[in-house]
Specification:
The complex is a heterodimer of chains A (388) and B (595). Chain A is an alpha/beta fold and 388 residues long. Chain A has 13 helices and 16 strands. Chain A folds into two domains: 240 residues, Rossmann fold (3-Layer(aba) Sandwich); 140 residues, Rossmann fold, CATH 3.40.50.920. In chain A, strand 6, helix 6 and strand 7 form a beta-alpha-beta unit. Classes of the chains: A alpha/beta (388), B alpha/beta (595). The interface between A and B is medium-sized, with 36 and 19 residues.
């Protein structure tokens, strides 16, 4: 059934369709998701418990507790809220709990800002969470459904990432799946371990040097199974719903000289540009990054290896090191025998628009550049103001 | 995806997990202070003259356990349905909730609980009987003179303590002031009759039309003691020229009730013709009762009082009702004289002014020189107070009497106990009941242990620091485990009590119609009663809310059949339970843990 929904509402509907049992969240700006779910719990259309908390740290702690108790859980946050969860994010993955979270990419202050920026989620890249970035409302709904299945197979938490406003607050026609279809895709949660008063046990206690490292390796190994598991999840999803995503999506990459790489809603803008440029005979491609953790090195190599130049568009910045996606792309490619030059661009921070013109500018700069240079290049920026 | 397909992925899952119970980790040995359950005393129960366990009553009522709530009241008070209507409820003034928003409507709840328990029928009645059953017969026989609230109360408690009891009542029906002094619209006759009947069912014999004084040979007839509960039946005169023209207010109330009984409805009483203006002299509850009765007989009453409205001894809500019903109030006017006039009675009045506060806290009044006035009325009613017949007073003042808080006990071969209005400072129904109870307990101690033990044994039954005594404490019941310290609002965790307004019965008060003595105050319906009882914070009294158990980080709170217990093996003494107890029913430090 098609419905016109906000990206946030699309996620909430997915959580409802997944028959989630416990939701805990703190209502930070950008989380219409939470409002919507609170409503579902209140009006009984979702048979779940909504736990009100005083902070995001507690929200994550609550779902950790609930997930340990063997039920399907969900939370949502953004920006400062996510930052406040940081400690508990480590706990969720270390405890191998299949928690799903929607995270709305929003800039961190100061300067206080409510708009799109990827630095918040990317700053959590080492917490052991799977990260999936969404391009539009349909993908946000579909990815949330996939996230539960993926998380429950590999016993790792999944962060479904949405652009602030461009996705969270934009209404689009969205195909809302039938409950019966979702039930077929996603079986009831059957935990591999749980707290059970009938079989008491202690979990996550002191782990000394002889075992700690093996536990970390276990998480790493679980992460390494994700590409294979996601492939199966995607295939199953496609067989029921007819939509397929994958860890990356390569558009016109096979014969491209220059490939633009990006994640999130900008990919939609770039699809438009690629169509226009291809019509003019330009050999340009787009690689949309959907999965960031685990980083899909093999898929990236396969898509990019034949190009001459790669331009990575980062809506984030690791101060002192530049765009984060670019760093990861470089390291993914650096041991390939034949590899393209990697150009790094920082654009669209704190909600600044990235238009087809912006992207075309990046494409032209890349095309004309003699060499990538050491630093990320900041585009459409008032240099004078930035230097003052 | 099927479960088998999901499981086909070999995903490493190695994390620390132990099937060894954390019970091995005895966090209790970190402990150097320990929480314990310590029910203390709620200010309402301390303020209640009857010492009613109000938090327990409201907790039971909030669960809809009205029969149990009623029995809890009956433990301390034989007349809940009566008190639920006429008590001046000092409990509500003391209620901690009053500091947060509005006090609990304890009085209206008492009325509702009494009616709901009756409605619950036989189960409730037999349950009540079990709870208040008579003790083993002592072989002692006690006479009670007067069947007002003090006499009924003394007989009730004496009977429960195993003593044979007979009430001698000079009137033809029992109840004393409750039957003859309180108008029907405040206390419907059948309600009182029901409660007196329950007392008779307990084995108390009430001999109406058999007035006795102390010259009667009680001792020779085998009585070990006499409880004097004769009340104050003699009206005080106005002490001004023409005072004989004034009717006695109490006598008027008596006659009205008698007429109502005879006619099966209300009829004009006291000879006053309908429609005229009448004066009521006085500022106490009787003056209000007289005025409100007159209005129901079609008269236009004017209350004349020598001080200001705020100095009136009548309960504020009674004054408010009277004025709302159309009673007029003339403040700072004292009667100078009464004289018969062609149009009725000419009442001369002296204007008064308010002076310095006297020893009782009320302002003294003095005459304003030369300022007098007159009103002409159809009749004048004097309701300025009553006193006991002189012989009772004389007997009470005999040497050797123990002056207890609300009664006097004169030990001897025929012990005498003076109770009710004769002996109490505050003349109220509840104080009279408290007085009767005190006398009953004192006589029981006297019979069993002698006069020397009376004061100490009664002191041990006090609720908090006040004079109110508890039968449950006297009998060594559950309540005697409580600490006498009174918990104030600062001792509570008020974050757990969202501010809510006090419930008001949604039923409108019936309009005052001439000739109708229908009950003036509407009661709660079931939903209102549940909501209001739920507002009670159950101060100082564990109501098994389990906050302690929810918050205990060591799962060290055990649920027992009769409360909660701290598992000392695991309690690390963090004190979270005490902090999160909403009602101040836990303390830190003591070794004893169980409630």
């Amino acid at each position: 059934m098609k419905k016109v929904l906000e990206g946030s509402q699309a996620v909430a509907h997915a959580v409802q369709l997944a028959r989630t049992k416990v939701i805990s969240a703190y209502p930070i700006t950008q989380t219409h998701i939470v409002e919507e779910l609170a409503k579902f719990c209140a009006d009984g259309t979702l048979d779940g418990q909504f736990i009100c908390v005083e902070s995001e740290h507690s929200a994550m702690a609550s779902v950790i507790g609930a997930s340990s108790g063997g039920v399907r859980t969900f939370t949502a946050s953004s920006s400062h809220g996510l930052a406040l969860m940081h400690e508990m994010l480590h706990w969720a993955s270390g405890a191998r709990l299949p928690i799903v979270m929607a995270e709305v990419n929003r800039a961190l202050g100061p300067g206080w800002n409510l708009w799109m920026d990827q630095t918040d989620s990317l700053a959590q890249r080492d917490t052991g969470w799977i990260q999936l970035y969404c391009e539009d409302g349909q993908e946000a709904l579909d990815t949330t459904l996939e996230a539960f299945l993926l998380a429950e197979i590999v016993n790792l938490p999944v962060m479904v990432v949405l652009d602030a406003f461009f996705l969270s607050h934009t209404y689009e026609p969205i195909d809302l799946p039938e409950q019966e279809e979702v039930d077929r895709f996603l079986p009831p949660f059957s935990p591999k371990f749980m707290l059970d008063t009938e079989h008491p046990c202690g979990m996550h206690e002191m782990s000394q040097p002889p075992v700690y490292m093996e536990m970390r390796k276990s998480i790493q190994a679980a992460m390494e199974t994700v590409p294979e598991v996601l492939a199966k999840v995607d295939a199953d999803f496609a067989s029921i719903f007819g939509r397929h995503y994958g860890p990356v999506e390569a558009i016109d990459c096979d014969d491209a000289d220059v490939i633009l790489v990006m994640a999130g809603t900008t990919a939609s803008t770039c699809r438009e540009l690629v169509r226009e440029l291809r019509a003019k005979g330009e050999k340009v491609g787009l690689l949309k990054l959907r999965m960031f953790r685990p980083f899909p090195v093999a898929a990236i190599r396969e898509s990019l290896a034949k190009a001459k130049k790669v331009a990575v568009v980062d809506r984030n910045n690791s101060a002192g090191a530049g765009g984060i996606f670019a760093q990861e792309i470089r390291s993914a490619l650096c041991n390939c025998a034949r590899r393209p030059e990697v150009y790094s661009y920082v654009a669209g921070l704190g909600g600044r628009d990235i238009t087809t013109k912006t992207l075309e500018g990046i494409y032209r700069m890349t095309l004309e550049a003699a060499e990538p240079g050491l630093e990320s290049r900041w585009v459409e920026i008032d240099e004078e103001l930035a230097r003052s | 995806m099927t479960r088998a397909e999901m499981d086909s992925f070999k995903v490493p899952l190695f994390f620390s997990r132990s099937n060894t119970s954390t019970e091995a980790n005895r966090t209790g040995n970190w402990c150097f202070v320990r929480p314990s359950y310590r029910d203390r005393t709620a200010p309402c129960s301390e303020a209640c003259p009857c010492g009613t366990d109000i938090p327990r009553v409201e907790t039971l009522a909030s669960k809809g356990l009205y029969a149990e709530a009623w029995q809890t009241i009956l433990m301390e008070n034989p007349l809940p349905a009566t008190c639920g209507r006429v008590c001046f409820h000092p409990c509500e003034k003391a209620c901690n909730r009053g500091e947060l928003d509005e006090a609990i409507s304890v009085n209206a709840l008492e009325r509702f609980i009494s009616e709901a328990a009756q409605a619950a029928g036989a189960g409730a009645a037999s349950g009540a009987a079990a709870a208040i059953v008579r003790g083993k017969a002592s072989g002692k026989k006690v006479a009670v003179i007067g069947s007002g609230p003090a006499g009924l109360s003394a007989a009730y408690f004496l009977a429960r303590l195993g003593h044979g009891c007979e009430i001698f009542e000079s009137a033809d029906e029992a109840g004393g002031l409750l039957r003859w002094g309180i108008p029907e619209y405040r206390l419907p006759g059948p309600i009182l009759a029901r409660e007196i009947k329950a007392l008779e069912d307990l084995g108390v014999k009430i001999r109406c039309g058999e007035g006795r004084d102390l010259s009667w040979p009680f001792k020779d007839k085998g009585y070990a003691a006499v409880v004097v509960a004769c009340g104050q039946a003699r009206a005080m005169g106005l002490g001004v020229p023409g005072e004989e023209l004034a009717k006695d207010g109490l006598e008027f109330l008596r006659e009205t009730r008698r007429d109502a009984r005879a006619a099966g409805g209300a009829a004009a009483a006291g000879g006053a013709s309908s429609g005229g203006k009448v004066a009521v002299i006085g500022g106490g509850n009787s003056a209000i009762d007289v005025a409100r009765t007159l209005i129901r007989l079609g008269m236009k009453p004017l209350i004349v009082y020598r001080r200001r409205r705020e100095d009136m001894p009548a309960f504020a809500h009674e004054i408010e009702r009277a004025l709302a019903e159309g009673v007029e109030l003339m403040e700072l006017k004292a009667p100078l004289s009464l004289a018969r006039d062609a149009k009725g009675i000419r009442l001369s009045l002296q204007e008064m002014k308010s002076g310095e506060p006297g020893p009782d806290g009320r302002r003294r009044v003095e005459a304003v020189k030369g300022a007098t006035s007159e009103v002409v009325v159809a009749a004048v009613y004097a309701a300025i107070g009553a006193e006991a017949e002189a012989p009772w007073e004389t007997a009470m003042k005999a040497a050797g009497a123990l002056a207890l808080a609300r009664s006097r006990l004169l030990p001897g071969p025929l012990a005498l106990a003076f109770t009710g209005d004769l002996a109490t400072k505050d003349k109220s129904v509840s104080d009279a009941i408290a007085s009767g109870k005190e006398a009953a307990l004192a006589l029981d101690v006297l019979f069993r242990e002698g006069a020397g033990a009376v004061e100490a044994r009664l002191a041990a039954c006090r609720i908090g620091a006040g004079p109110s005594l508890s039968m449950e404490l006297y009998l060594g019941g559950e309540r005697s485990k409580r600490d006498g310290k009174v918990v104030r609002v600062d001792d509570l965790n008020t974050a757990y009590f969202p501010r809510t307004a006090r419930m008001v019965p949604h039923i409108a008060r019936p309009a005052v119609a001439p000739g109708s003595f229908v009950e003036a105050e509407p009661g709660f319906d079931a939903a209102e009663a549940l909501a209001e009882a739920g507002r009670c914070m159950s101060c100082a009294t564990c109501n098994d809310c389990d906050n302690c158990r929810t918050f205990c980080p060591e799962v060290a709170v055990k649920v027992l059949d009769d409360g909660r217990d701290i598992n000392a093996d695991y309690c690390k003494g963090c004190g979270v339970c005490v902090e999160e107890c909403p009602r101040g029913a836990m303390v830190m430090g003591a070794e004893e843990t169980k409630r």
